[in-house]
């Protein structure tokens, strides 16, 4: 049985809503059943129609969606709510959805502020419901392969990490025109205290902690507003001190003119290291001090259980961003199905970003911006 | 409204059936409504259940599917039948589906023999129904970009083409064990007169004719059975003479140990050339005699209308094999929807492989195998 | 003591003469002592002056160089003559040099015709002098690594080989202007029976036989003159049957607009294969059927003795075309020095192309052109 | 006439001395005439013999070399002295060479301390002699192309720069064994206040200032000793504030296990950016916000005058590390020859690193180490 999915946000023209819908659809595990696609009732209705939803499952507001779906018979009502609104509209829908008995899939960053994130964590704990936070890049098979290799001690303890997320799309003052994505992402009222650091810095941060299993303990940030007139940071670089004595560098920028979205992570222990980048997402380059580097590839027989579990096609048939995104949806579905079946989910299915990652992501945003304003070199990573 | 899809073949464990289902699901344009997933009725039933189909839409044979669906009210019955069986089971289901009033999506190569292909072409012409043949690689945005650049005369007339499809998965005698894919693909009774040339050579051939807009007129083939005991070719190389005076080389092998599926095409005119390969599918490398080579990328604003139409995510978020496959499904759906709406479909939607490509693909198989057996240098490409 | 080198050809403006001089200089093993740089005495003199040669060691003709140097005391006269003239001026200088008691370094292809090549082989055998033929690409460390891996049986017997040499510099009718390189290379009176096949096809052929240790036994060629007005082939593709039952494809073209000089070879046995290309010359990609591909690199500690011997810098500091060329000069020098010292040269030093390779290269040219003119599919490789 | 070169340091087994000799030899502009190759007189003599030097031009100490060569007739004595000793032995030989009337080629970093560097700058100014500092990476044609594009305003003012130099060769405690390179480079008495930052950080720093034309004004460094027992830094990351309001990140590490020497620089202005790395040294990737990225290549006709001037082979024949190194030697020679001829040298020849770069490099070392020890976020770049 497919899991019934309701969506909050994602009206026509929204970027991330369409991505979520494709990710949910790919593996046939979800059925988009209901939606409050816009705070504009007419727009919500039109989107619902376009998507082929039954008219009575298309709502004018998320409150209405939650209230009405709760009334429906259990076998009919949505089981999971996906929230794909801008950052300032994450907390309330998520909180209410959890308290109304729905599982939640939430776009990142988790909330508008760290305080909200911690509150949401408590709400979730009390609700008995689960939350999946869509840190897409952790869904790539070769990212999971890297994590599994690190966790197995393949490289020895990680000593150095470099993570970067260079974009170029905000090289000019895009928010001055009619670019809606640029408008809300550079608006403190909708994005929060951070621009680039919230939008893509959090992805880099999550990737680092996810793959290495280490935690940021202190940081030192250079946060910049490069484009004149911009109200939030569009560029930053951060020195990191990590648990276990490692150090790292995190770079995120939206003014690297001509760059697309080549998020990349490299890490090194005494016995070797690895290199992964989205531009060549199905390759994990593994380097050794004294023998040839290896090219590990999605879809092969020799990769670990996590990479195997998160791939769909034979080696050499590239899996991309939507497949990585779909892996989050798929693992969340498998976890919920296991719960419904009263069976334990395998570790590969349980491997999706959740509340802890969300809280730490929001802590990153607040700490990194604080460090950017500070004259002190090192800022403790406070959660 | 979603298009109602029935599937013939694709029971649990089948490779290509699962691919078709994901491709159909990705864009939310189809609803898998019915299926005859196996000639084993129980297996068909089990697959249908797993996929969440209504039990009365799961059939024990394709004949039953066609007959029963035809009986259903128009608003309910499947509109398109996807046929994902081995080659020897393409023609009959496809013929009957067309004659029963269903559109058809058919896995490649189109049929078991050229004679069947030509017959199917006639049947289709008489039926008024449409057929989409899933030559996946023609669905990649950057392949379409190459085609559009060539068609616009960007490089001048194409003079030289290299196309290759190296695989390594049949380097050993896999059909000796329990590898089902290897078993049927190396079996003349199920695969046809060709092994590698039918399985992947046809993809290379289609890619060549699709991108360059040229036709093979003569060929000279070296066809080999490399692995002892194998009953069909597992390797071949073909010299080509193309319309307009161009020449080319086509290589397809399944014994290139360690190779995955890096199908690649390069072509050159007097004013420039291009290079595309599946391993870096979102890049089209364009070379010029007297200025820097260009890296054209999926999802950017500067690519042509066909590449734009066939992409879903912003540049740098890789689209892969499933997205390319889904483009075939999507364009076919858009074409059918336009027809239903009584409107002309845009050229970008009409751009999917169909009967003509299928007939030429089968002609390639028969001509190339004939040339392989011939002592004569050049064999005319007979259709 | 440095080896005293005389040069025939290579006047100012000549391409390959300057390359030879840099290759000879790099390792400090040769001293350019004498030269007949041009058949134009004044030009020869001017070149000699520019190069800082003593005026009495600069000659107006190669005959004069050979005659006069022979007169000089043994401790003073040149020991090796490098011949860097166009193809039609290879045989006579080389023959006379050998007969006059000089070792010879000769640019490829060895001669103007196969008959000349075989004659030169006899002359050399009678002279007791050695000859080094500058098939540059065999000098790359990672090419030698590939050869050593193949020879050790790492991949099992080689079953399939692809070699290609795509260039674009003759995409237009360059010989119509003042491009001297284009002029002689497309002129049957100076280049011989072949254009592209002689200029770069021979390199590809040599690379194939050198790396795989196999010999071409039969071939089937498609030889083309693509650019109107051109007098020799500028494009070709060749199907190959190799010793031991392997097959191959050789491609060489000078009309691949925008291509530089990315000569590439791939070969596969049952247990694995390799991939080398000049554009990434310090990498040898080694593929396995069941484990990650390996990236072998120049200058590392894990490569074999031949790759070690032919490298100068630590890994990651790229060695290029001149270093590969210099390896030929260096190995020839080490061989001559060992001979002078009455000691056996190590196999790594003895590893430079010589007469046998030269004769087979000329046979390739004549056979491939003959096959191009033939209606018969397979042409036996006659030497 | 070749320039007569004397060498200080570079005895058998020394790494960088051999590199200098090959760089000097490649273009035939220098003749290695004299040497004091070791402070061990016998070792110096043996090296000189191996190199074929006249015995009376091989000296037991650099003092002897300078004194004796000064006595020789002008037409005979060395004109340039190359100093290739460890850091602590740079200043005295360089000072005395300049004061004795010799031009100097000096390995980097310029001296042992900033104070020495500034003193050497004064000495040089007073001597009328020239100094070339071998920051190799600035010799690559595509690095020069990047610099010329930046200087022409192609990208607009540079706003963000990333430069990195990852190595892995000191991942373990190499200095505990008999690795001489590791021994002196990790020894404060021979290397100076910095390890990695002096050895490779200075290269990254020089590359950044050279290519962008910007100057570091403030920095914030995280400097680490990763390998237990090591006495100098083996890892560091530095946030940079640059002239003109730009910012940057500099990374240098010697504990990135498995990394070779892939120094890389990326920079971005509002209108575009570039990317260069040593692993693909003949490519300059140029990115634009709104059109395809470009691949600029060594040896092509479309590159600028600096790239043209610093290349030797046609496009596609890779030039490597030794060629880049040789470009420094070559440009220094052309500058000296122009001076001897009383003519102005072209700007392309004058383009080699010299005293100013040396002083700033030493200032970088001292400032970056100071910042590493500081609790203050930003350290002004003091010279």
TrEMBL record, chains A, B, C, D:
InterPro entries linked to this entry: Gfo/Idh/MocA-like_OxRdtase_N, Gfo/Idh/MocA_oxidoreduct, GFO_IDH_MocA-like_dom, NAD(P)-bd_dom_sf
Domain of life: Bacteria
One of the Pfam families matching this protein, by short name: GFO_IDH_MocA_C3
Domain GFO/IDH/MocA-like oxidoreductase stretches: 144-274
SUPFAM superfamilies (alphabetical): Glyceraldehyde-3-phosphate dehydrogenase-like, C-terminal domain, NAD(P)-binding Rossmann-fold domains
The Gfo/Idh/MocA-like oxidoreductase N-terminal domain, residue ranges: 3-133
Gene3D superfamilies associated with the record: Dihydrodipicolinate Reductase, domain 2, NAD(P)-binding Rossmann-like Domain
GO MF entries: nucleotide binding
Name this polypeptide is given: Predicted dehydrogenase
Organism: Hymenobacter arizonensis (Siccationidurans arizonensis)
């Amino acid at each position: 049985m497919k899991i019934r999915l309701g969506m909050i946000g994602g009206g026509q023209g929204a970027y991330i809503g369409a991505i979520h819908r494709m990710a949910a659809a790919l593996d046939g595990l979800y059925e988009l059943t209901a939606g409050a696609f816009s705070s504009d009732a007419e727009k919500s209705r039109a989107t619902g129609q376009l998507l082929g939803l039954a008219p009575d499952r298309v709502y004018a507001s998320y409150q209405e969606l939650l209230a009405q779906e709760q009334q429906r018979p259990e076998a009919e009502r949505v089981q999971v709510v996906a929230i794909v609104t801008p950052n300032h509209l994450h907390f309330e829908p998520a909180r209410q959805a959890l308290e109304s008995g729905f599982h939640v899939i939430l776009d990142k960053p988790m909330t508008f502020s760290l305080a909200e994130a911690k509150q949401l964590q408590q709400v979730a704990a009390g609700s008995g419901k689960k939350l999946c936070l869509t840190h897409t890049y952790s869904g790539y098979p070769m990212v999971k392969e890297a994590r599994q290799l690190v966790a197995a001690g393949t490289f020895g303890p990680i000593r150095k990490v470099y993570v970067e997320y260079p974009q170029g799309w905000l090289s000019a003052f895009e928010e001055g025109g009619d670019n809606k994505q640029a408008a809300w992402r550079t608006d403190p009222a909708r994005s929060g205290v951070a621009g680039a650091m919230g939008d893509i810095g959090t992805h880099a941060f999550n990737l680092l902690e996810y793959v290495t299993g280490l935690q940021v303990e202190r940081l030192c940030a250079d946060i910049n507003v490069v484009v004149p007139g911009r109200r939030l940071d569009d560029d930053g670089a951060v020195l990191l001190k990590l648990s276990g004595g490692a150090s790292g560098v995190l770079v995120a920028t939206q003014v690297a003119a001509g760059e697309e979205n080549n998020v990349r992570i490299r890490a090194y222990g005494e016995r070797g290291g690895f290199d992964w980048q989205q531009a060549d997402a199905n390759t994990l380059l593994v380097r050794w001090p004294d023998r040839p580097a290896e090219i590990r590839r999605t879809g092969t027989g020799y990769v670990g259980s996590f990479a195997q579990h998160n791939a769909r096609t034979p080696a050499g048939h590239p899996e991309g961003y939507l497949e990585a995104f779909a892996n989050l949806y798929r693992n969340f579905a498998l976890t919920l199905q296991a719960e419904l079946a009263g069976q334990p989910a395998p570790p590969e299915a349980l491997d999706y970003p959740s509340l802890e990652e969300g809280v730490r992501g929001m802590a990153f945003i607040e700490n990194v911006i604080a460090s950017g304003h500070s004259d002190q070199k090192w800022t403790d990573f406070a959660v």
